[in-house]
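Lecture notes, unit on protein representations.

Consider one protein chain, 250 amino acids long.
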Amino acid sequence: MKTLDFDNAKYEESFLIGSFDTDLNGNAKLTSICNYLQEIAGKHIDTIHEGVNDLQKQNMTWVLSRLKIHISQFPRWKEKITIQTWATGTEGPFGNRDFIILNDERKTIAVASSSWLVIRTDTKTPVRPKRFVENLPNYNGKTVFKTPLKKLKPKNEFDFKESIKIHYSDIDINQHVNNVKYIKWVIDACPMDKLTKNQITELQINFLHESKLTAELNIFRNKLINGTNQFVIKNDITGIEHCHAIIKWN
């Protein structure tokens, strides 16, 4: 089911949770949920012909820069979820977008907010997004969080957890590591007892620099403090930081 509301201001689509999208407990993986968010965001912007395919003809593309998702209840295998999304305006170089995830009873089980960049594919420089979204009206100015997404500033000492070599399957249509891969890596770097006994309630992540095929990355995690882990992903050779992330647990 795909629906548009208020003159294209809000887009809605339903998804059925498949077995391939669930974890060992039968809950939808957070990475799968984030893939759904990315998919529906692209479909919405496609309705005004300013999506990735349209921008590529002008040597530009959309890239996700910041994401925050709060989950009160994970959907389970075979359950249907409905995702609603709408633009929340532009702020400097960012085009902002929010989401609500509903269960089959139309109860909100998760909310998310995101900030996107338009960049030139040849120079990697950002382009002001306003002209690309001006035909996509804001949905009543509604936002799911009280404050806009800000740059994360990791604190405290970090311990090395593991190295990751980028493979072919990690690369997306923009020829760099897909953002959901970073989410997978930081989740996999979490303590096993937290993953099996607790639930992630919130993920916030900043994507800082692109990673290319065959590069090697190092993942660092700090100790659990007040139910929160912080992560940094760096290039093994250059030390460039590609990602900052925070995970909160129940």
